[in-house]
Amino acid sequence: MFSIITNDNQLENVSGMNSEYPIVVRHINMAMLDVPWHWHEEVEFKYVESGLLRMRTEKDEFVLRAGEACFTNTNIMEMSEAVDRTQDTNVITFVFHPALISGHFQSIYEKKYVRPVLTNRQIKVIKITSETESGAAICKGLLKVSRLYDQGNTEFQIRNLLSEIWLHLIKEIETQLNSRPAESLRSKDRIRYMLQYIYTHYAEKITLEDIAASANISEREALRTFKKALDKAPFDYLNEYRLDKARELLETTDLTVTEIAVSTGFSDSAYFGKVFRKYFESTPGNYRKKIKKD
């Protein structure tokens, strides 16, 4: 397994992204990838070539099949995973900064076509299938971009294709939003505040009261919000996040198990070892040995 790189607020640092040509296209086998909850300012399309891909936001969950795609808006917290890790789940991801198609600030492209999508808080993750004319055009366009991306001197072609895809996306969004009730932003804001608190303070001693206070809600409401958004309790999520950070340190540093336990917020190395073994089916020491051997 390997993980995407995020900062302490789970804002993804998109590897390979640059201001001259702000797009990255990757072919990924999701069965071999750990993708934690994250967000980034770039927008993203995913196209599934094979297998089943589960997409989750704070409130929604759906599965993409081969030949289907999805659009994730800017700064939307989401995660994705292979439904079956024993089978290949090949996905093409298209991550690009909206400026690639909107041009300069306050351009007509930005004001008329791009900004209305980026600022519409109802638009989080849009599932795209070939059942609609606009959906079929998006999927076809994404495959064209994928084929062109590794060729030389295709920047203009790709930008033009992305502009066409964006126009079809606007039609697809209009169709879907017309059949979708308006959604409250309250729950989304609450869960984001609490997750940001966990990402910043996970190495410290954290109480449920601390997590709830970060969103200015009661402990009971914090439990309810976590259950509704992520289907788990705050401390279950906190422990999983601490364990994921500990796993990264085991793989990338020479810190002792005790030092890693302390730096990731566990009370002592014995408890850390017990929880780590339950979660990864291996002791921290054996896990490190296996990684080095591999």
Spatial extent as radius of gyration? 21 Å
What's the count of strands?
10
Could you name the CATH class of the largest domain? Answer: Mainly Beta
State the separation between the terminal residues, measured CA to CA: 11 Å
Strand order of the largest sheet: 2-9-4-7-10
Catalogue the unreliable spans. 1-5
CATH topology of the largest domain: the name is Jelly Rolls
Oligomer: single chain
* Total number of domains: 2
Helix % is 40-55%
SSE order, one letter for each helix or strand:
EEEEEEEEEHHEHHHHHHHHH
Question: Mean of residue pLDDT?
Answer: 88
Q: Specify the CATH architecture of the largest domain.
A: Sandwich
Beta-strand content bin: 5-15%
Walk me through the structure.
The longest helix has 23 residues, at 155-177. Strand 5 (53-56) and strand 6 (61-64) form a beta hairpin. This protein starts with a strand and ends with a helix. The protein has two domains: 2-177, Sandwich (Jelly Rolls); 186-293, Homeodomain-like (Arc Repressor Mutant, subunit A), CATH 1.10.10.60. It has 294 residues and is α+β, with helices and mostly antiparallel strands. Helix 5 crosses helix 7 (219-230) and helix 6 crosses helix 7 (219-230). Strands 2-9-4-7-10 form a five-stranded antiparallel beta sheet, covered by helices on one side. The chain contains eleven helices and ten strands. Helices cover 47% and strands 15% of the residues.
